[in-house]
Amino acid sequence: MNHPDKHFVDYLCNGLQYGFDTMVKYDNIKTMECRNNLSARSQKDTVADLINKELLNGFVYGPFEKLPFDDYRVSPLGVAEGKYSFKKRLILDLSAPHNDTNVSINDLIDKDLCSMTYVKIDDAIRLITNYGKWTKLYGKIPPPRSTCREAATQLPECLRSNVVLNETVKQLWTHAVANTTRSLYNIGFSHFVRFLLLNGITYNSHDLPLISEDVLIYFIAHCFKVLKLKHTTIKIYLCGIRHAYLKSGYHNPLETPHGEFLPRLTLILKSVKRIQGSQTRTRLPITFPILQEICLRMRKGVFGKYIDCLIETTCIVAFFAFLRCGEFTVMNVDKFDPLTSLCISDIILKTDYAILRLKESKTDPFRKGIDIKLFKIDNSICPFLALKRFLSIRHSEFGIGFPSDPLFITVNRKL
């Protein structure tokens, strides 16, 4: 509160507490309700959830039984997704309806009172250069590049404003790598961003900073010494950095302009690996005798009828179908997707065998899907009988449910 302009301080505090004047000036504005953008119309559930959050936080009022205004304008809603967090948020298009017949909200704002200008990097460089050589900041200006960084990302206005193609490109980028890989990439890149900010390197999600081989080497040292990460994890984090830069239209930061791996970076990674040594974990598979012991113990009763049956069935099915953990489980409830995860409809019971429909797997990156047959066998450990018994108990516990419901869930409906 030591700001010399007390009027400005009062204006700012009052605006933050009670809201600022929008500076919209109008005499006769035509009542109009604009249609929501395609991104909002195609994600109705997401829009409803985001609006409910706004209501709960007190950022908006409603719903109203009677409109509180005689004249009003409804601008279209849209849904935007974070470039790296993939978190969705609402946007309001105040430039609608984009025609000459009806003015937009932005058109009604006095440009003399409310305007925004951008200071370009060229302006900053010109200002620093004017101070002359041997000044403190002059030497920090990077030498000129042979190629323009923005050339690869420049798009015509018609493409930038094409909602359908923009959403399609985002979707394609989302499926460029597997979900688990993308999560690891996001974690790695978030650590890198934090490292940049802690060391005074400016970061802007819309304009990634140019990074040198030395910055990457020091980031490896940070991961090794401060974060105590293994060599394999550091490599994944570097891949996450590469993915983020490629997605934003930049050159691969792990390679030279000639497409070769950065030599010093490679040596530093080898050094980390040599210091940590090779640590091969002993793999202990579940053999059939071990599976028998698990099933017999569950049948004696441990957690309750349903949970015991659930554990026994998942173990038997995973054993006979050679399933990986990620093929019949998810990390948490939010990660469940009926298009890829195991659902009730993915189990079909025949006379003497069951069909398990695996929609995606590590060896099936293009999601063609595969049908796995689990035959009835003359043994107490039978995948067909285990599934049949589990489905019966599941129906009695939760009802028939929908075909898209998860197959394996706990009593509290957690996956």
From TrEMBL:
GO terms for biological process: DNA integration; DNA recombination. GO terms for molecular function: DNA binding. Gene3D superfamilies: 1.10.150.130, Intergrase catalytic core. Keywords: DNA-binding. The keyword Acyltransferase does not apply. It comes from the Eukaryota. The lineage of its organism: Eukaryota, Metazoa, Spiralia, Lophotrochozoa, Mollusca. This is Uncharacterized protein.
